[in-house]
Design goal:
The chain is 54% helix and 9% strand. The strands form two sheets. The chain has an eight-stranded mixed sheet, sandwiched between helices. The protein has a two-stranded antiparallel ribbon with strand order 9-10. Helix 10 packs across helix 16, helix 12 packs across helix 14 and helix 14 packs antiparallel against helix 16. The radius of gyration is 34 Å and the shape is elongated. The termini are far apart.
């Protein structure tokens, strides 16, 4: 008999698990989405509104009362309205005394007001316990099931007990509360949703700047120079050839910039004789964005791989190969296999494959879902030891590809004589008074002659 009684008691609902009523001021998109999510989580919800008429948009099971009546029925009140409409709370000061007010508002721009909205609310209703929360969660995320990107909820407040109540509500909704401290942190929390990739700004601007520089350099070297000096039209290089030169350069440069600040930091520590001194601000900011620099470098390396894969199907490559074959047939001469070049070619490809494989591995371990499942020593081994190995392999890949061409003067199109010839050709074509470019000559540095055809 006692056994059955204990089972019945175990199956009976516990009154201690009953949710407390929550009041929401505001029936906008976010207020309705938050109310619907709370009702699903077992919270009785009452809306405080200027109009007490039940609308079809209001979640089923929720009451709609006046602000005063709704505030009297709940100890936790969520203010889901904009800051400029807070004035209606002043007549409710006595009713709101001792209650927990949760400010969920955001601004239109960073630091729009001298104080945060939560601090302004605390000044407006001095007897209430103000807590900042839910401003980093969107109505769409609440309606679609709180996606991983929106699970974290920053919470701050001066009253520890009130903050704990709000954090329990956050957990009940399937979200993850993060305690940010006192109400002084509300300004930073309100600015967070307005920031556009704050840690990505420097890597992206640096990448675009380097990409623009190398693009114009390659454009002048591989398109404009042959057109002006050799009268050859290689403008189609802009589509594949030039991007396939820019991407590996940027990938290797950005990857080197990932590990360069660590070397500089070690040098600074050795110079100072201690590692407990703060780094300069520029180096500190540089080190904080190393992850973003690495991911941007991986993106350019991936583009380089894709561009390389389409090279065999290009018309220019097919034409060049067919021209070589026809030239060998007409000359009745077959070029023997150069094993040295074959070794260099296979080695350059092998180094590139290995380097890109480790590059992808570094990118995967940078993902939060992966990095959270490895300990600090494992993460450091991958990001440090394998990272330096990746940099070495990618650098070797580039050096083997270049071979001895850097020792050949003809590889440098900006040698003094070639530059002078290019300059002479441009000046003669622009300064000829007879407009007869085919018969105008310009001798470096100061003499020009023009003759009629």
């Amino acid at each position: 008999m006692n056994k059955n009684s204990s089972n019945i008691m175990a199956l009976a609902p516990s009154t201690s698990n009953r949710r407390e009523t929550v009041c929401i001021f505001g029936t906008g998109d976010f207020g309705r989405a938050l109310g619907h999510k709370m009702i699903q989580s077992g919270y009785p919800v009452v809306f405080g509104s200027r109009s007490t008429q039940i609308s079809s948009l209001i979640p089923k099971g929720a009451e709609v009362l006046s602000h005063a009546e709704a505030a009297q029925k709940a100890a936790v009140i969520i203010i889901a309205i904009q800051r400029q409409n807070y004035n209606f709370l002043t007549p409710l000061t006595e009713i709101l005394h001792g209650k927990v007010l949760v400010d969920v508002s955001n601004n239109l721009k960073i630091n729009e007001y001298p104080e945060s909205n939560a601090e302004y609310l605390a000044q407006l209703v001095p007897g209430a316990k103000v807590v900042k929360a839910f401003n980093t969660v969107s109505a769409w995320a609440l309606q679609s099931g709180t996606l991983d990107a929106s699970r974290q909820v920053f919470v701050c407040g001066d009253d520890t007990e009130a903050k704990q109540i709000v954090m329990n509500i956050v957990r009940a909704l399937g979200l993850t509360p993060l305690d940010q401290g006192s109400l002084l942190a509300a300004q930073e929390i309100e600015n967070y949703p307005l920031q556009l990739f704050p840690m990505w700004k420097f890597p992206i601007l640096l990448s675009f700047g380097l990409a623009a520089f190398f693009f114009f350099y390659c454009l002048i070297r591989n398109v404009i120079y042959p057109y002006v000096y050799e009268n050859k039209d290689f403008s189609f290089f802009i589509a594949i050839s030039i991007p396939n030169r820019i991407c590996p350069i940027l990938a290797l440069t950005l990857l080197a910039l990932v590990y360069l600040p660590g070397v500089l930091a070690a040098i600074i520590q050795l110079y100072r004789g201690t590692k407990y001194c703060r780094f300069p601000d520029w180096l500190d900011k540089w080190m904080l964005c190393r992850k973003q620099l690495g991911l941007v470098a991986l993106a350019f390396a991936s583009l380089h791989v894709l561009y390389t894969l389409v090279i065999p199907i290009r018309s220019f490559v097919k034409w060049r190969m067919s021209s070589q074959i026809i030239s060998q047939v007409l000359n009745n001469k077959t070029e023997p296999l150069d094993t040295t070049n074959a070794w260099l070619s296979d080695s350059y490809l092998a180094l590139g494959i290995l380097g890109f494989f480790l590059f992808v591995l570094l990118g995967i371990t940078s993902l939060p879902s992966v990095s959270n499942n490895v300990n600090w020593r494992e993460f450091r081994f991958v990001q440090s030891k394998l990272g330096y190995l990746t940099l070495i392999l990618c650098t070797a890949h580039t050096l083997v590809y270049g071979g001895k061409r850097f020792l050949n003067p003809s590889s440098y199109r900006w040698a003094r004589q070639n530059w002078n010839n290019l300059w002479c050709s441009m000046v003669s074509s622009l300064s000829c008074p007879l407009r007869l470019r085919s018969t105008c000559t310009y001798t470096y540095p100061h003499r020009s002659t023009c003759t009629r055809a």
